[in-house]
Each structure stands twice: as structure tokens, then as C-alpha cells.
Amino acid sequence: xxxxxxxxxxxxxxxxxxxxxxxxxxxxxxxxxxxxxxxxxxxxxxxxxxxxxxxxxxxxxxxxxxxxxxxxxxxxxxxxxxxxxxxxxxxxxxxxxxxxxxxxxxxxxxxxxxxxxxxxxxxxxxxxxxxxxxxxxxxxxxxx
Length: 144
Hints:
about 5% strand; single chain; mainly alpha; elongated; two-stranded antiparallel ribbon; about 50% helix; Arc Repressor Mutant, subunit A
């Protein structure tokens, strides 16, 4: 499984909004500059996040984006699934029911199930608040 650029940028966008959106909404232009990502690309990503209800937009000169919830209420998995879709390592595991005609006789299925579980255990247990704390620690702004 490989997370696309779109998925990676969505996490960076959400992290930026979480860190910089306490006082007022965060403008895409500012996120693009800080993250060194194209504004147009971020606009496409934030549109999906807005429709999914992860961020809300406000218009006007002080407009921009804010989180809809507290950072601890978002997981990396939640954000990635809205952008990437399924995070399953193989196509036969995308659906709730494995309809592959070989699944009953597939020796590799156990491997794919273990890999899927490992991925979910990471992305579904790392929150946006964790990412904020990690970033602040890296930047030397750790909250005491």
C-alpha cells in the first residue's frame, strides 16, 4: 500500500489548520506557502475535506478554514480514507465481504489480513492531536 501525494498533503493541510487555526480561520494561501504545496492542489483537497465535514470554510477577508472538531477527535485513518478511499493492501479486501473466488483457497490472504490489521492499528490510533504534538516537539515548541 502506498499513500498518494494527495493523502500526504491532506494530512499536512489538516495539521497546519490544527496548529494555526486557533485564533482565526487559516487561508489556503498561507497553508500553501508554509507547506510548499500548490494552492490549486490544496483547494482540490480541502474541497473534499469540507464536503466530508472535517473542516468548515468561512468567506471574506478574514475567511479560511477551521477544524470542525478538536484535533484529538480526528484520526489519520479517518482523514486518509476520505482522500484515498480504502487503505486495504489488496483489492480483494476493499469490501466488507471478500468476494474473490479464490479467497477460501488463498494462502496469501492471511498475510493481507495481517497487513491490513497492522495498517489500521497505526492509522486509526494516531490522532491529529498526536501529529500536532509531534510537530511542536520537532519545532521546539513543545507544550509543557
